[in-house]
Amino acid sequence: MFSRAYRAAITIPPLLWVAVFLLVPYLLMFCYSFWSVTESGTIVHSWTLDNYKELLTKPVYWQTLLRSMWIAARVMFFSLLLGYPLAYFLSFHAGRRKDLYYQLVIIPLWVSYLVRAYAWKTILGTDGVLNTLLQYVHLTSHPLDFLLYSPFAVVLTLTHIYTPFTFLPIYASLEHIPRNLVEASHDLGATPAQTFWRVIFPLSIPGVLAGATFAFVLSLGDFLAPLLLGGPSGIMISNIVVSLFGAAYNWPLGAAISLCMLTLVLALIFSSERLEKRWSFS
Amino acid sequence: MTAMATTVEPGVSSSSPPNSLLSIRSVAKHFGKNKVLRDISLEIAEGEFLTILGESGSGKTTLLRILAGFEQPTSGEVWMSGERLDRQPPYRRRVNTVFQHYALFPHMTVEQNVGYGLVIAKRPAAEIEARVSEALAKVKMSAYAKSKPSKISGGQQQRIALARALVNRPRLLLLDEPLSALDANLRRRMQVELKALQREVGITFIFVTHDQVEAMVMSDRIALLRSGELEQVASPREIYNRPATSYTAQFIGHTNLLQADVRQGRATCAGLTWPCSLPDGKSLFSLRPEHIRPASVASAANPAPNSAPTPTTIRFRAILRDQSFHGSTDLIRVESEHALILTIRTASRDLPSSDAQIDFEFSAADAVPVRPTSFEENT
Predict the structure, then answer these.
(1) Running DSSP on this structure, what letter comes out for residue A19?
(2) Which residue in chain B has the smallest CA separation from A199?
(3) Quick check: is B279 in a domain?
(4) Across the interface, do B106 and A187 touch by the CB < 8 Å criterion?
(5) Which of the four pLDDT bands, split at 50, 70 and 90, describes residue B300?
């Protein structure tokens, strides 16, 4: 239908884009992860598995990775805990205010990530809003120091930042449920609670899976929240990657960690999509 | 005239039937300023097949939703065998619904869909299994028990929706245009099956449709709804033969509406005169196309038009204007000497095609007086 020249003209630019900005960098990262670096900082371009050996043998790396996954898992859990009821309320009970509430959920996404992270810093710090308030009402006599620079602060901040990302796919899947299914369930004698667990929730599982994947994957790769609020105990795997590519100047090891994370994340997204397909019936 | 006398069923009318199951009392429903239903009162008998018939926007679906419990009436009450229904949530009513788009649960198999109500009611597993397979057998869908709804056709989904409702043995089954998404052939087959099924299970059916043919074929009674008000409630034969209003006459089948002057027991319209028992003044009459027929050859030999052989047979002479084929009969439009256009249903295929004068006749008893509705047109 279209001429070959036209088809080439519309397909080649995006292909080039993907190649130059995605495939080539990944390929470079792949190569780096099998190279090494000398004491003086020169990259040795000969193939070796030393980087991967180091990852497996030095506990700091896999321990940090496990801690990052644990933080990401908690963020995922709390995002679902907040995002699902919010999405359910908006979709089924917000009535005419639905669009307004929806905007209220979305607007924080327009605020810079940094601003939101710093906001938590001023709330959670030793002289922060929360500690001042707690002392003012005499709940504590001295500032609570576990609030800031801790995994708690990281989980809290990431949950705040990524809950809208969890909310959106859940909301979309709830909006797709034909309302006559809810009526049919009531008609057949099911109470609202029974209807929720037997009809609404099962049909929203694809949204839950997508939302959970968003929260987990985005948190796992996050490095700003742990950098600003994590302190020594809240360090995550991406902070190590950043320092390996920066101060430590060990690109090969940084690339090896990145590749491991990439594999992990791709595996997660892949299995989440497989599961979503099993639970969609449209 | 004699044909008419046998078709009217005076026992069945809009007033209270003997064994009333459902009682709709002065129900009104307003959506803001929009008065969707005004003052609907209706008694429905145990085991009856009642059709709520109306155009889109007449309020028929809203009325059904009030019975199911998905809407609250703005005023009025609904009672079912001595129990007030309209205050109860839908899941407490012994009423089940077959939805227009079936509303089968997509994540459950056919079997799980049908068993849903019984599982919710916490029936024993063995009973659920037995009743589900019995219900599936009744709608001839046993072979599809393990299928997902997305894998079966629209007609089959329709049967499952029916089985899912009937398996709960409700006192009352509501059907919201359940056949409207099916193609014409399947639809006609389902009409017959549904009617037979209703006879078999003996459950009261309230069936909503905009299709007057469907209503006529299936119902014990038709409640014709117009702009949120009941226009007429009667058996299909009565509503067809004795339409109360010009709207009913036009909505149920074809008709000719005649605006006549009544003087001393004789109605006159465009040169036609027939006896009637109405007070003097203007009156509107409905004359069905099949009640006008070409005059018999013997009487057609009589040259004088409008001189009826008996006082109750009215004869007139007209010219054929157009003709349309409807299978076993034709619908023709003729123009009388007094420029009156009439539609006639006839099985005669040998009518002179144009310009020739033809004699037609009808019986005075077939000209049924109707109450005019606001937008009737005089033909």
Answers:
(1) I
(2) B105
(3) yes
(4) no
(5) very low
Q: Touching check for B168 and chain A: CB below 8 Å?
A: yes
A-chain CB neighbours of B112 within 8 Å are none
pLDDT value of residue B296: 65
Mean of the pLDDT values across residues B300-318? 64
Domains of chain A: 49-278 (1.10.3720.10)
Nearest to B120 among A178, A183, A189 (CB): A189
Contact B116 A281 (CB under 8 A): no
Domain membership of residue B141 (yes or no) is: yes
3-state secondary structure chain A: CCCHHHHHHHHHHHHHHHHHHHHHHHHHHHHHCCCEECCCCCEECCCCCHHHHHHHHCHHHHHHHHHHHHHHHHHHHHHHHHHHHHHHHHHHHCHHHHHHHHHHHHHHHHCCHHHHHHHHHHHHCCCCHHHHHHHHCCCCCCCCCCCCCCHHHHHHHHHHHHHHHHHHHHHHHHHCCCHHHHHHHHHCCCCHHHHHHHHHHHHHHHHHHHHHHHHHHHHHCCCHHHHHHHCHHHCCHHHHHHHHHCCCCCHHHHHHHHHHHHHHHHHHHHHHHHHHHHCCCC
Examine the domain organization and report whether B63 and B176 are in the same domain.
yes
Q: Provide the domain limits for residue B352.
A: 249-370
A-B CB pairs within 8 A amount to 67
Q: Quick: pLDDT tens for A206-221.
A: 999 999 999 999 999 9
Q: Which residues of B touch A184 (CB under 8 A)?
A: 97, 99, 103-105
Same domain as B268, residue B238: no
Mean pLDDT across chain A: 91
Token pair of B49 as six digits: 């097949």
Is the minimum CB–CB distance between B120 and chain A shorter than 8 Å? yes
What CA–CA distance (Å, rounded) separates A81 from A140?
29
What confidence tens digit (pLDDT) does each residue in B327-358 have? 888 888 888 888 888 898 887 666 666 667 88
Residue percentage of chain A with pLDDT more than 90? 64
B213-245: per-residue pLDDT in tens?
999 999 999 999 999 999 999 999 999 999 999
Partner residue opposite A203 with nearest CB, options B70, B99, B107:
B107
Could you say which of B247, B272, B290 is where a domain stops? B247
For all residues of chain B together, what is the average pLDDT? Answer: 86
| CB–CB contact A281 B107 (8 Å) | yes
Q: Which residues of B touch A276 (CB under 8 A)?
A: none
